[in-house]
Amino acid sequence: MIKFINESTDYLKSKGFDNPEVGIILGTGLGQLLDHVEIIAEASYNHIPNFPTATVEFHKGKLIYGNLEGKKVVIMQGRFHVYEGYSLQDVTFPVRIMEKLGIKTLLVSNAAGAINLNFKKGELMLIDDHINLQGSSPLAFKGVSELGERFTDMSAPYDAEINSKFESIAQDNSINLHKGVYASVVGPQLETRAEYRMLKIIGADAVGMSTVPEIIVANHLNLKVAAVSVLTDECDPDNLKPVDIGEIMAMAAKAEPELITLFKKLIKSL
């Protein structure tokens, strides 16, 4: 793993990726932030040594380096998922690369379904805590202690100071930003009515198929981390309709301008 990390990092440095301060992972249908970035360098995932390749049609596959609100940022345009057949170590490998390049803060976005029926599709949820239902851990491999503390503390995985800033920015800009617990499942199938009921019982406010592995590894690397979900559908088990991926993408696009406002103003304040 250390050899792979060094090879990938050396390649990106040779392409001009120089000491980024903030890493950003863009979720499903959330690519317009790049319109606000002064791009300095970019690298396709399939050109980066040891990198996985994005296989989901609406996920791009590029690592982008540039300036955003006066800060050097590195952005994952497209992420990896367990449901694509990747291991949790593959899914989180880019986080280790971004940390090795120099980031101190990681911001994550995702598309999620609202379990809490007080939350509506097209709104945003700041993740305050999470439930890992992916069946394993990205830290469960031989030699992990060479990269950080094996028994990583997860009592407060999301940075309280950053979350507080997000809430202030939302208030100042009239953005309806909910706060809640995100449950991460394997997918790619959507949940049954009984599964939605279970998720509600165990305390989830939203459900998705990503983010938690990256958050665990970010904590393993002592990065400051925060994450925002775009709520793309409402998961009401008593009135459940077949999923419409087109509508999910449309809802992500509808909420994206508010997400961009949050991320840009937060980065400016760091």
TrEMBL record:
GO terms for molecular function: purine-nucleoside phosphorylase activity. Keywords: Glycosyltransferase, Transferase. The keyword Transcription does not apply. It comes from the Bacteria. Residues 22-268 form the Nucleoside phosphorylase domain. InterPro entries: Nucleoside_phosphorylase_d, Nucleoside_phosphorylase_sf, Pur_Nuc_Pase_Ino/Guo-sp, Purine_phosphorylase. Pathway: Purine metabolism; purine nucleoside salvage. Its EC number is 2.4.2.1. The keyword Hydrolase does not apply. The purine nucleoside phosphorylases catalyze the phosphorolytic breakdown of the N-glycosidic bond in the beta-(deoxy)ribonucleoside molecules, with the formation of the corresponding free purine bases and pentose-1-phosphate. PANTHER family: METHYLTHIOADENOSINE/PURINE NUCLEOSIDE PHOSPHORYLASE, PURINE NUCLEOSIDE PHOSPHORYLASE-RELATED. Belongs to the PNP/MTAP phosphorylase family. This is Purine nucleoside phosphorylase.
